[in-house]
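Help wanted!
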Amino acid sequence: MKKLILAVLAFMLMLPNLYAQDTPAPDPYKPSKTQFMVRGYAHAGLNYKKVGDEVESTFVGTTFNPIFIFKHGDRLIFETELEFAVEDNKLEIGFEYANMSYILNDYMTLRMGKMLLPFGTFIERLHPSWINKFANMPLGMGHGGIAPTSGIGVELRGAIPVGSMKVLYYGYITNGPKLNTGFDAEGNIDEPDEAGQLIFNNFEDNNNKKGYGGRLAILPFSNSSVEIGGSIYGGAVGDRGSFYSNIGAMLYAIDFSFVRQVSAVKGIVDIKGQYNLTNVDDATYFEPEPDGSLTPYTFENSSNAYFGQISYRPTMSGNDVLKRFEVAFRYSAFNAPEGAEWEQESTQWAVALNYYMNWRTLFKLSYQSTNQVGGHGVPEGQTVVTDGLFFHWALGF
Amino acid sequence: MKNLKTILVFALPMLVGSLIMASCASSKVAMKSGAQLWGENCVRCHSTPSPSAYNNTDWETIGLHMRVRANLTAEETQKVVEFLQSAN
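Answered by r_m:
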């Protein structure tokens, strides 16, 4: 008992000391000059596809994209993204981007490194699985598509307010796209089916001639709800000193975006679209025959791809569950040049029903139907219809 | 030609519809609050994060990241970050 009283007394004597600290408690969130963040996203899911009469069903994933962001002071930031995915039972690691940016002034930011290109808007802004409202990318984007993904180089970008409007500009110089000629650097036959396509990720310039590109966009209303942009990117694409050294390419895109919470329909209406056009100078390619000989051929190397999508989420509904749902519709098409080994005409429509667990985690249920004429595995003159049902769980962190 | 028709069929009504919806725009950025700019801008590419999603330090980093990625103006970024930090 005595011990207890002593203990209580001792505690009471200490109390004033506990409260009488003259230095305030350290604030764990006080910003330091240097900040480092690990962010990223992942997705996994179930794909069910019917190609003609054949059915495929498989779980897919997980793809995991860690993003590292490093910031020093108020002007300097470095961002990099990796992608881990398993393809054909092998771990593939992608190096998506790695670049530094420095805010030169209110209207100008300088960037350098490997960057997602502001060519249209899909790749730079909409492709991460937690942002894309569908389980797949639109036709013509991503692998085997015609939209440039990233480039290695230097860029200036900025936003300029003009009255109640805003003008965005982007200008960049990169190593430029490279032509797939059907031969490798040593002159051996390599991917002859893809002759005439462009390869965008070039860590080394194949011809010393740089690729030049830019985007100009306008947000005509002060609420930033509408954005209309035009992009251009081009340069020499053939290898230095090769048969293709004079071949160049020009790429064009226009994009449109409207996003706004509209009270008349009690929710967010989101409309986006992009049209891509790629023109590569005519060149002669060679088709390997079974007897080992090569047959020369050429074609008008012009391709295009486009998509339009609309989605609606009843964010102003009084019902807490309904608020988390979103419906979306997308139409896309891809037209590869006639006469190329990769000639094809495809169209696709897709519908999606999405449920948001939180702002960056969603369940996507989507159905899509693709019509393809020409291209890999499609018999001449036939249309192959692929129906797909996808259930994906995408998460940003 | 078929392409052009499809594009027109889809794109034109969307364009006209959205321009009508957008035209009830309000005042200039200088007169807008951080909360309003957050509501109008952060929804353009992805769902809007709520202020409570991150702490003050993280909002500084994300603010700079988004300023570059989304090409936001200096004023928009500053106002939105201040709002997010005051409301989290």
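OP: Thanks! One thing I noticed: The longest helix of chain B spans residues 2-22.
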